[in-house]
Write a structure and sequence with these properties.
The complex is a heterodimer of chains A (284) and B (312). Chain A folds into two domains: 90 residues, Translation factors (Elongation Factor Tu (Ef-tu), domain 3), CATH 2.40.30; 168 residues, 3-Layer(aba) Sandwich (Rossmann fold), CATH 3.40.50. Chain A contains eight helices and 17 strands. In chain A, helix 5 runs parallel beside helix 7. Chains A and B meet through strand 4, strand 6 and strand 14 of A and helix 1, strand 5 and helix 9 of B.
Chain lengths: 284, 312
Amino acid sequence: MRSPGMMEMVRVREVRRESSAISSVMFSSLNRSRWNSLVPGQFMMVWVPGIDEVPMSLSYLEEDPLLLGITVQNIGEATQALCSLREGDRIGIRGPYGNGFTLPEKADVDRIIGVSGGVGGASTILPMEWAGRNGFETINLVGARDQGLMLFKERWQRNSTRVLFSTDDGSFGHGGFVTELLDKELSALTEDQRARTIIFTCGPEVMMTAVLDVLERYGVGGQFSLERFMKCGLGLCDSCSMSGKRVCMDGPVFSLEEVLDLEEFGKLHRDRSGSLIPIKECIR
Amino acid sequence: MERPDLEVNIAGIRFPNPLLLASGIADETGASMAAAVKMGAGGVVTKSLSLERREGHPNPCVVELPFGMINAMGLPNPGIQGYGEEIAKFRRLTDGRAPVLGSVFGSTIDEYGEAARAVSDLGVDAVEINGSCPNARGLGLQFGQDPEVIDELVRTVRSSLDIPVFFKLTPATSDILELALAAQEAGADGLTAINTMPAMKIDIRTGRPILTNITGGLSGPAIRPVGVRCVYRICSSGEIEIPVIGVGGISNFEDVLEYIMAGSSAVQIGTCISWSNLGVFSDILQGITCFMEEEGYSSIDEIRGIAAEVVE
């Protein structure tokens, strides 16, 4: 029996304002062993007592002293509660759960391109920094609706081989979609270089659908971090079910080949009752 | 020596092996249930379904503990009509290899009856009455603790169906045999024992119960000895003739054999999937087969209930 993801109550150390509507909640943990085996891209279930419990990627993992963080866009009751936490408040943390991103073999791949959209950057930043520390060339393509929603500007610049930004309204970086940057990057590579490149991506599902199209066009592989409504986070309740896969346990990171088999990708998700409903997205 | 035969026949339904996916576990969709069959499950039970869709309780819905977990999902489901396509998909993907039991609940006895008919119309092989869910006020447990109510509930469901009816029993009772007898007298074709145990967890830092529903149902290894004893109590009584499906805390082949030796004809597997994933089905099948070969058993029937025989 694996060690259970028992809930640890932690105190909020600091709330960092990342952009106009995005904050990072920083906390420490006494349960060090829980973090030693963490794979970047895994998620936690985060409990705000009396409000809700939601799945969140870890976006900060600083050692000595141990400081962890999750990054939240204020879009609903739970995220609003997370954004309005103050130093000293208590939250409950369980996990980490799921699979995380997988670093490829150095013999096969030289370059990892991160494609991040909006608050999806909270799920790609640790994996991309990890890839860089492991000797891969890391190119980060970071998109947001506008400059005010752009996440981790300095951190991307500091920890990438190269970084390009895009905003839908042109207020910062390339004016247009981040997938246009991806198309340009891949078109500039030779066939051989493309074969030694993979993509890590997280963002709104419409964006990732466009990423999938670009990758298929160039024959480049990728890993996609997906999101669905979750209750247990443990692979039991199946509320995050997606074409027979459980996002919490079989994911949240799926390979391009797996994503192609997920008929619901980009189209449908499940509400709290488990009913299938069309994806409506306003954040890109 | 021939390979041991793992097939079991329960209430006239043939299962290729005695391992079923428990209700409420990885069964939101036909594809997820089919994934369990692909990994070796001999049958599946759907999540508990009601006539109307339900969202269940707000999170947190689960608490992990050292020897199990407490859940209070609150019976979320898309409603029986919304689930029809999932049964059809399960059939398509499994090609009829494994039976499916439809789990149902309601807020009145009549609703249980209607729900059972509706789920039967979806083409399930049997109905499992969830008369013992501890997690939703007015749904489940208050039906399952009173022999008189069980009598009326099972009669109502039984009279309107022509497929087998299983009744799922709660361990939260002074004598589970009385409840089992009531269900048998009322015409149940089989029993499932046990449901989760009512339980709770308080966070000492805030003094707050962690589950939004305050209480939930305990499952996992912590309740296995309770489940084994309940099955033994029912099956060794000499008063129960209908088959029993054992469930509660199974995580390996030894646990399955314990339940079968206590008298159950098959078992259901749930909580351990959170750490063993669906591969637990193939692992257990392999373990049981090796055990039977080593000990010289040729069928599950030969093992069933031997604990009571040994004691005699």
